[in-house]
Amino acid sequence: MKILKYLFLLSLLSLVALTVFVATQKGNFSVERSKVINSPKSTVYNYVNDLRNSEDFESWVAEDPTIVMSFPNKTIGNGASFSWEGTEGNGNTITIDAKDGENIHQKINYNGTEADVNWTFKDTLAGKTKVTWKAKGTMSFLFKIYTALNGGSDNVIGTVYEKSLVNIDKNLDYETKTYTIKVYGVVKKAETPYIKQTFTSEIQKVNKNARVVIPKLISFSKANGLHANGKPFIIYHTYDTANGLAKISICLPINKEISISAGSDILAGKLNGFEAVKTTLTGDYSHTNEAITKTKAFINNGKIIPELAWSHLEILVLSKLDVKSPSKLMTEIYFPVKSNAVIAPAVTAPVYNQQPAEGETPQTTQPAATTTAKPTVAKPAATKPAATKPAATKPAATKPETTKPAEEESEF
């Protein structure tokens, strides 16, 4: 019996000694880890900036199946947040400041342990990104005990950061490299009434701007008794790759034409019917340039005459508002073309001189599967007119066709 009492007293004294020791230790901590991620800086930044992705890369989430994460409507940029509950405690994260593509400043509270968290993103060679993740804060008493028993705060938090950075690299390596591009050929697009916001944007920020504008358009349509009649789309009136700028209209198709009073930042319009070469990109937006290059190669190889009154249109079939994984994004790209027209090879060269930065001569030739027979529809137009002498009447017949693009030009 006495032995048990001695053991109990010894355990109690040890606990008191540990408590006193922990209580006298500094509660401040600073932990930093870095890793080179095998993805472009903009892709890595956008992935981390969307707090919904935290449950996919944070290692502590995977290691605790009891954790339930909650996400509000805003999970991207300044003011974004999320919270979690689990058997080991509750916490929340809020983004205080996000500088596009450069750094993110967050505040975290976990069971009374508070920290300022900073992410920085730096370009490296070969399109990779060095990510530095740093936390500085004050531990709660219980967390001080936990870290004291597990090798200190640098070991506990640093291990979580190291595993999470590896997860980011693995996830993005798969997500960014998993994509497909398919060129369908010439299709017809029907006329579409829509509401829109028009402005000039950096090309690399177009999709980020779309994530901001589209919810506004949806709210406007609901407030005014309108109904969306398809997926949101972006009209590129101009596409200046040399300066990285585009004049765009971010649009929501609606069920009827409307008029909007002056002074509103949301306007109404109608996209006239047109013919276009259609391409579908399934995957991350970083592959858009490749999709555009392949579309232009198809147009050049098929001797199709582009309509130059405006650049192109993108339909966001599955956007960041619909899916979380970049590999599941789906974008339809339409480059407007003249109806049933054939152009001589000598005339095709100047077509892309307007966009030298992007108009790399299509080195990417279309696979046999994608080089469909669509352009050959124009072959009769190439042989028959040459055989028929009434050449004076044929040009007159083509003029009405050029009036349709003029209607579209007035709209754009």
Briefly say what this structure is.
The chain is an alpha+beta fold and 412 residues long. It is 34% helix and 31% strand.
What can you see in these coordinates?
- The chain is an alpha+beta fold and 412 residues long.
- The protein is built from 11 helices and 15 strands.
- The chain has helices at residues 2-24, 41-49, 54-57, 59-63, 141-149, 153-177, 206-223, 288-301, 345-348, 379-387, 393-411; strands spanning 28-37, 68-70, 81-86, 89-99, 103-110, 113-123, 129-138, 180-189, 192-202, 233-240, 245-253, 267-271, 274-282, 312-318, 330-337.
- The strands form 2 sheets. An 8-stranded antiparallel sheet has the order 8-13-15-14-10-11-9-12, sandwiched between helices.
- A hairpin with a 4-residue loop joins strand 10 and strand 11 (245-253).
- Helix 1 packs across helix 5.
- The longest helix has 25 residues, at 153-177.
- The protein is elongated and about 100 Å long.
- The N and C termini lie far apart (93 Å).
- The relative contact order is 0.11.
- The model is unreliable at 341-412 (pLDDT under 50).
User: What pattern of helices and strands is seen along the backbone?
Assistant: HEHHHEEEEEEHHEEHEEEEHEEHHH
Total count of strands: 15
Biggest beta sheet summary: 8 strands, antiparallel
* Rg measurement, Å: 29 Å
Helicity level = 25-40%
Shape: elongated
Keywords:
412 residues, alpha+beta, seven-stranded antiparallel sheet
Task: Chart the SSEs and their pairings.
Elements: H1 2-24, E1 28-37, H2 41-49, H3 54-57, H4 59-63, E2 68-70, E3 81-86, E4 89-99, E5 103-110, E6 113-123, E7 129-138, H5 141-149, H6 153-177, E8 180-189, E9 192-202, H7 206-223, E10 233-240, E11 245-253, E12 267-271, E13 274-282, H8 288-301, E14 312-318, E15 330-337, H9 345-348, H10 379-387, H11 393-411
Helix pairs in contact: 1-5
